[in-house]
């Protein structure tokens, strides 16, 4: 009896693992035609969306994923493959501002500030992709991030009828743990799209690109959302 239960549980676990890996491979296969690793082969689009990540780890060591994305954004911009860079990331806390950090580094590298647009409410990949379409009025754009992230972002875009391609920048070595987490992130994305039908946490008024986006120099603490929106979200979460 105990052996039957054990082998039954083992079979269920193996089936779940096989299903997760199968879905992971399916997403990679489905999005492969839209991914470019050579900037010369990248099609021209007006907007390049740089998906945010922290510049530093908690230990203070610089994040190689961040550096590769910034360099990828520079490559796409300087080669004329994109005219504007939409920097989408998390800014939920005053001392953590992914879009502004990227903006400063890109300006130092020579990008015209007038060609940079900030999305302060890119809390998740789904938020970044949908907000590019619904807030920034752009339905055909280049995503800039690592290949594993490209695949998930493109899958979200394709499912929602959004046209997009991705410039896959290099990944650091020894990324086994990150790739393992990505399997879980893809299962979460599938649940968001097919089961939960989730929308971004915040949308807001239409801000078409190109447009003039004035960013004050002291914008480090610029809120991703208004205090009223945060209170509204907290009330929804309590229910």
Shape: globular
The number of E-state strands comes to 6
Calculate the mean pLDDT score and round it: 86
- How many helical elements? 7
Question: How are the strands ordered across the major sheet?
Answer: 1-6-5-2-3-4
Major β-sheet, in short? 6 strands, parallel
Radius of gyration: 19 Å
Question: Could you list the spans in which at least 5 consecutive residues all have pLDDT below 50?
Answer: 219-227
Could you give the order of the helices and strands? HEEHEHEHEHEHH
Structural class call reads: alpha/beta
Strand residue content = 5-15%
Q: Can you walk through the features of this model?
A:
There is one protein chain. With 239 residues, the protein is an alpha/beta fold. Helices cover 47% and strands 14% of the residues. It has 7 helices and 6 strands. Strands 1-6-5-2-3-4 form a 6-stranded parallel sheet, sandwiched between helices. Strand 3, helix 3 and strand 4 (116-119) form a beta-alpha-beta unit. The termini are far apart. Residues 219-227 have low confidence and may be disordered.
């Amino acid at each position: 009896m105990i052996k039957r239960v054990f082998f039954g549980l083992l079979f269920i676990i193996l089936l779940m693992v096989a299903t997760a890996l199968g879905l992971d491979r399916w997403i990679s296969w489905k999005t492969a035609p839209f991914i470019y690793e050579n900037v010369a082969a990248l099609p021209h689009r007006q907007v390049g969306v740089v998906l945010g990540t922290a510049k530093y780890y908690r230990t203070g060591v610089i994040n190689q994923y961040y550096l590769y994305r910034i360099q990828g954004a520079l490559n796409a911009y300087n080669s004329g493959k994109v005219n504007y860079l939409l920097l989408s990331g998390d800014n939920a806390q005053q001392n953590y501002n992914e879009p502004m950090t990227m903006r400063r580094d890109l300006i130092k590298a020579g990008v015209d500030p007038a060609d940079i647009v900030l999305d302060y409410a890119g809390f998740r990949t789904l938020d970044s992709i949908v907000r590019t379409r619904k807030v920034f009025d752009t339905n055909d754009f280049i995503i800039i991030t690592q290949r594993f992230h490209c695949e998930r972002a493109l899958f979200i875009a394709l499912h929602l009828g959004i046209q997009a391609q991705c410039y896959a920048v290099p990944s650091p070595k020894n990324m086994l743990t990150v790739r393992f987490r990505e399997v879980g992130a893809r299962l979460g994305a599938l649940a968001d799209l097919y089961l939960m039908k989730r929308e971004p946490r915040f949308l807001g008024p239409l801000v078409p690109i190109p447009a003039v986006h004035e960013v004050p120099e002291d914008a480090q603490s610029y809120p991703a959302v208004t205090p009223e929106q945060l209170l509204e979200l907290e009330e929804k979460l309590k229910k």
